[in-house]
Amino acid sequence: MTGRCLIADADLELRSALRRFIEPRGWEALEARNAHEARELLRRARPDVVLLEEHLPGSPLSEMLPEWRASHPSVPLLVLSATPSIDGAVQAIKLGAEQFVPKPVEPPTLLRLMEHALEAQRTRALPPPDTAGGPEPFLGVSPLIRQLEATVRRLLDSDRALLLLGETGTGKGMLASWIHLRGPRARAPLVQLNCAGLAPQLLETELFGHERGAFTSAVQRKLGLLEVAHKGSLFLDEVGDMDPLVQPKLLKVLEERRFRRLGEVEERTVDIRLIAATHQNLVERVRAGRFRGDLYFRISTLPLRLPALRERPEDIPIIARNMLERLSDELGRPGLGLTAEAEAALCGYTWPGNLRELRNVLERAALLSAHPVLKTEDLDFNAALAGMRPDAPTASPPESDLSLTLREVERRHISRVLASEGGHVGRAAQRLGIPRSSLYQKLKSLGLSAKV
Ligand SMILES: Nc1ncnc2c1ncn2[C@@H]1O[C@H](COP(=O)(O)OP(=O)(O)OP(=O)(O)O)[C@@H](O)[C@H]1O
């Protein structure tokens, strides 16, 4: 049996349709027509998932949800609503529903939502994330990385803001999720926002949300990321680029835990841990009047500097071996490794793109080489570097020249997308709408490996 589902809904048609759909798929369906029957089944039959009608006869949602959350905290509850509204959804989620699902809803959609909810619940029930895999941010033996790990571990339980400093690709984003997942807020969300290039109003609405009618295009109320991150962590990448108009509002959140949605009079409270990151020199930005001094002091109490790869060459072979192990699994190419000369070549390179670039070089080599043990000649540093430079030469727009073959158009388009993504193959593949492995195959077949 896949699971047991309690369908608490007065609508006989919906119950029957869902039962007919889920039973052949290994689910057991329990039906309740009202709150009394639902309570009884919940107590007796211990379902894995509950579908609960918003206005189930016999008891209001505002009573039932808190009661059920208290008695069965680990059972995901999905609220089905025939009269959906934003207020109803916010209330249901606040009271502990996993999802708020507007009716009508097709059984296949409901089944998918149930499976997601169950999966999320199982993930939450996993043992603490120390055992949960994911890249290890402190690989290596250098004093710089050992010191960083010791400091991070001391700060895990603190609620103070953290500032991650380091060049591009040093792993600031990875470290932010590692910290979140190992800290006391791991069960709540980690919400990420990159402040670079966001216009002030967009940044404000993303962070603080807005009321309906707050500005011309605000046709609906929008929850800000701060509210989504409540009880969890907020990762603000490129915080040095935050618009000066938004900075005092962030400071208020940090100092008083209060903020206001755009267009709202009332203030709200929120409980988040801020993890900020930047590759810029914030002190210089404060001196230049681009970053507020008071905000800088607030977020820089606990600065953590992530070393560049070239500052710790002794760690490179260890990290490379670890990345190749992961790539072996991901690419289905067992036994990936490096010759001694290839390791030495990796250690002798300057890695302006740090871990991201190292991973790109290894992934590219692993996909393109015919043998699993990679040699120096398999490592294409120039391709990675050309892809990283924002000024890397790009081809002219292919659509302007009708004499081009389809292959040439494809070749040029891929080059441009790759260059515009700074050589980041994963992101380029995403923009192109193809799997990363297919992009590598295309690069190979189009002879693009050294000229992105
Ligand atoms: N510890 C690690 N082990 C393996 N790979 C890593 C590790 N840290 C980072 N990476 C790789 O490097 C890439 C860049 O990492 P991340 O985005 O965390 O860096 P960043 O410092 O936040 O970069 P940016 O400043 O450009 O946003 C990741 O996508 C991942 O592939």
From TrEMBL:
Q: Which UniProt keywords apply?
A: ATP-binding, DNA-binding, Nucleotide-binding, Transcription, Transcription regulation
Instruction: Fetch the InterPro entries from UniProt.
Output: AAA+_ATPase, AAA_lid_NorR, CheY-like_superfamily, Homeodomain-like_sf, HTH_Fis, P-loop_NTPase, Sig_transdc_resp-reg_receiver, Sigma_54_int
Q: Which residues form the Sigma-54 factor interaction domain?
A: 138-367
List, for all copies, the residue spans of the domain called Response regulatory: 4-118
Give one GO biological process term: regulation of DNA-templated transcription
Cite the CDD domains for this sequence.
Answer: AAA, REC
One GO MF term attached to the UniProt entry: sequence-specific DNA binding
| Segments crossing the lipid bilayer | none
Q: Which protein is depicted?
A: Sigma-54 dependent DNA-binding response regulator
